[in-house]
């Protein structure tokens, strides 16, 4: 029986070899494709983990609307879950001539976290040098040796100490694993086109823009694994408890700095008022001296007992002194006007500075909420998938969604996300959350326009 079956099979193959080879090829390709798909996922995770370890990618980033200080840095370093913490200066500018938004990052040679991968050239070694995102080289916007210029109108607050830089290289950052997106911002189009690395001394910023954090034992674990997620979540929760009171204290610090500036302006006003009083006294004394001289001159002119030659000589002397006194009087009057103008300007600055600073604080707070809203909207859009995949994504991203919703200060949205779970959350819930985020961001933009 087996012999007959074998003969029949060999006969079929001999009669139709093309069909046999086609079936054999299909089986081979299917098997190879299945094996490749099974190995691709682990290989990609391993490659990513090696890249993150080589570049020392930070596990978390701490940002604040009013910026961060050395006090915040010290508190973060004291946390038992933190292995390394580094401050970083960051500035987003809209370059109107190219209609592009650039994110300037301050570079320190001692920097350990988020190390850049050099594609061409080198990193900045001194002030006035700049290394651009590799996307700028890909789009042929700049070449090594070109001048990179920032217009005065694009940096009205003079947050950059230089207007021209020399392009010395092109780099990649471990923060950005995509070739398209570079994050959201509250300037220009709302999307960062590419980043630029400059020496930190070229940035004129008083407070740190963010603090990069690496947790203990996180580098011993594989990226995207459950143990890694648990380690980072534990560290983030610990930092939240550590920094819970810092927003209010930071606001007090900023107000105290504003008060110091106000006192300096008031001191200038007091100094100007004293100078004004002194000028008025000198002017009064000069006028009295001139009046006395005029009376004395008139008396001597009418006195017939004075000899004609002596009278003429004395008269010339008195007239010369009178002219000098008139010149002094004019100088005193001009000095008085100058002091009055200085006092007026100082008073104006004293009345407008606090209001302007308070308005700037409100603008920064609204801008930070808009950025959180855009990030939350982007993450929610990624959840618009099949119901089978949704439960896994909810489990992985619920904590980060809650954090962004709390930053947006949207109580209704926080309540909605808190009620989500792996079994009962549907696409309709995601759509409702998206509508709520869109409404919140729209309201914040209207509020920002009014400010």
Provide structural commentary:
With 451 residues, the chain is of the alpha+beta class. It folds into 3 domains: 55-244, no CATH class; 254-356; 363-450, no CATH class. It is 60% helix and 15% strand. It contains 10 helices and 10 strands. It has helices at residues 2-15, 17-55, 70-78, 134-138, 226-242, 246-302, 308-381, 387-408, 411-418, 427-450; strands at residues 60-68, 82-88, 90-95, 100-107, 117-121, 129-133, 147-149, 164-172, 194-199, 208-215. Strands 3, 4, 5, 6, 7, 8 and 9 form a 7-stranded mixed β-sheet that branches. A 3-stranded antiparallel β-sheet has the order 1-10-2. The mean pLDDT is 81.
The whole-angstrom Rg is 37 Å
Number of domains: 3
- In which range does the helix fraction lie? 55-70%
Number of helices: 10
Distance between the termini: 92 Å
The percent range for strand residues is 5-15%
SSE series: HHEHEEEEEHEEEEHHHHHH
Mean pLDDT comes to 81
Largest sheet: 7 strands, mixed
Shape: elongated
Structure summary, number of beta strands: 10
Helix-and-strand structural type: alpha+beta
- Unreliable segments (pLDDT under 50, ≥5 consecutive)? none
């Amino acid at each position: 029986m087996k012999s007959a079956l074998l003969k029949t099979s060999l006969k079929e193959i001999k009669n139709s070899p093309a069909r046999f080879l086609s079936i054999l090829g299909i089986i081979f390709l299917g098997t190879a494709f299945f094996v490749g798909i099974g190995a691709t996922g682990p290989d990609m995770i391993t490659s990513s983990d090696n890249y993150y370890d080589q570049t020392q990618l930070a596990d978390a980033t701490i940002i604040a609307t009013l910026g961060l200080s050395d006090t915040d840095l010290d508190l973060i370093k004291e946390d038992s879950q933190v292995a390394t913490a580094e401050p970083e200066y960051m500035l987003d500018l809209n370059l109107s001539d190219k209609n592009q938004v650039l994110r300037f990052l301050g570079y320190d040679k001692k920097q350990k976290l988020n190390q850049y991968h050099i594609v061409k050239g080198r990193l900045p070694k001194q002030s006035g040098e700049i290394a651009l995102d590799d996307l700028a080289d890909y789009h042929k916007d700049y070449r090594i040796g070109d001048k990179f210029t920032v217009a005065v109108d694009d940096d009205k607050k003079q947050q950059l100490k230089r207007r021209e830089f020399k392009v010395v290289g092109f780099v990649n950052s471990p923060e950005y694993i995509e070739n398209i997106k570079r994050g959201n911002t509250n300037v220009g189009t709302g999307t960062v086109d590419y980043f630029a690395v400059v020496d930190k001394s070229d940035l004129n910023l008083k407070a740190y823009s963010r603090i990069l954090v690496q947790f203990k034992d996180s580098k011993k674990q594989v990226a995207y694994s459950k143990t890694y997620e648990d380690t980072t979540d534990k560290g983030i929760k610990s930092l939240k408890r550590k920094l819970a009171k810092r927003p209010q204290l930071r606001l007090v610090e900023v107000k105290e700095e504003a008060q110091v500036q106000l006192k300096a302006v008031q001191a200038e006003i007091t100094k100007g008022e004293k100078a004004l009083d002194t000028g008025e006294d000198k002017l009064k004394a000069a006028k009295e001296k001139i009046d006395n001289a005029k009376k004395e001159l008139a008396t001597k002119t009418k006195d017939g007992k004075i000899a004609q030659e002596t009278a003429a000589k004395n008269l010339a002397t008195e007239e010369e002194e009178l002219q000098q006194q008139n010149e002094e009087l004019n100088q005193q009057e001009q000095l008085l006007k100058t002091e009055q103008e200085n006092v007026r300007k100082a008073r104006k600055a004293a009345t407008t500075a606090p209001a302007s600073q308070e308005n700037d604080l409100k603008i920064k707070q609204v801008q930070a909420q808009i950025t959180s809203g855009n990030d939350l909207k982007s993450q929610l859009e990624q959840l618009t998938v099949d119901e089978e995949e949704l439960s896994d994504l909810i489990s992985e991203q619920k904590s980060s969604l809650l954090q962004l919703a709390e930053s947006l200060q949207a109580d209704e949205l926080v309540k909605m996300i808190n009620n989500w779970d792996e079994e009962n959350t549907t696409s309709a819930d995601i759509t409702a959350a998206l509508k709520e985020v869109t409404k919140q961001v729209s309201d914040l933009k209207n509020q920002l326009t009014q400010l």
